[in-house]
Amino acid sequence: MSRKAAAYNDKQRILRLYSVLISKQSMGVDEIENLFFVGRKTVQRDIAAIREFLEDLQIEDDIKSEIIFDRKSKKYRLTEREHLFTVFDRINTNGSGMDL
Length: 100
Known about the structure:
This protein is mainly alpha-helical. The protein is 53% helix and 8% strand. A two-stranded antiparallel sheet has the order 1-2.
C-alpha cells in the first residue's frame, strides 16, 4: 500500500513541523522529508524560518527556546520548550509580543 502525498503549502508545512517539535518530539531530516514529501533544502529552509520566528518571538527574553540539531541522535529538537509556554501566556495576557 502506498502512502499518498499530503498537499501542504509552505506555511502549513512549517506550522505542522513546528507543532511536532513543540510537542516534545524530535525529528531527523529523513523523517521530515518523508512526512512532507520535500527535499533536504526545503527542510533546511523550514527550520531556518522557525528559528527566525522563535528569535523574533523571544527578542527580549533572557531564556530562549531554539531549534538545535542533536548530532548524537541526528535529529532536530526544541530546547527550553517550557519557556515557550510562558511566552505564549504573556502574549495572550498582554495582547503584545509580536505583530502577526
